[in-house]
Amino acid sequence: MRKNSVKNRRINEEVQRTLGEIIRGGIKDPRVSPLTSVTDVEVAPDLKSCRVRISVYGDADKLEETMQGLRSASGYIRGELARRVNLRHTPELRFIGDDSIAYGVEMSHRIDEVTALDRQAEELRGGPAAPDETEE
Fold this sequence. Notes:
- By secondary structure, this protein is an alpha+beta fold.
- It has helices spanning 6-26, 60-72, 74-84, 100-125; strands at residues 36-43, 49-56, 92-97.
- It has a domain at 6-99: K homology (KH) domain (GMP Synthetase, Chain A, domain 3), CATH 3.30.300.20.
- It is built from four helices and three strands; from the N terminus they run H-E-E-H-H-E-H.
- The radius of gyration is 23 Å and the shape is elongated.
- The termini are far apart.
């Protein structure tokens, strides 16, 4: 099976959905944040290993704490995955922190700030600048 085959993409999607359900509903570890998202899953073509990208709403300390909790519960998570998804092999899970959602939120805030500053500058000038009619 090739890495980007239709079958591999379907397996990735199913594993991602199932891991999200397991993490949201099955982990009782207090270190795992309730605001944890599985942002991406890459199952190897031989189904032996799986990279799971995890995003947590909060600061870097909250992400690291959640990652420790998930690593300690990886045996339980893998067992639940095997029970819920019928695969030839249940892959070894490797959790990787993903800060792309936090990065996107930060960029959105920065864009909002710049837009607000542009509006303030425009109001101070007395509205949008009129085009110069002498150029025609």
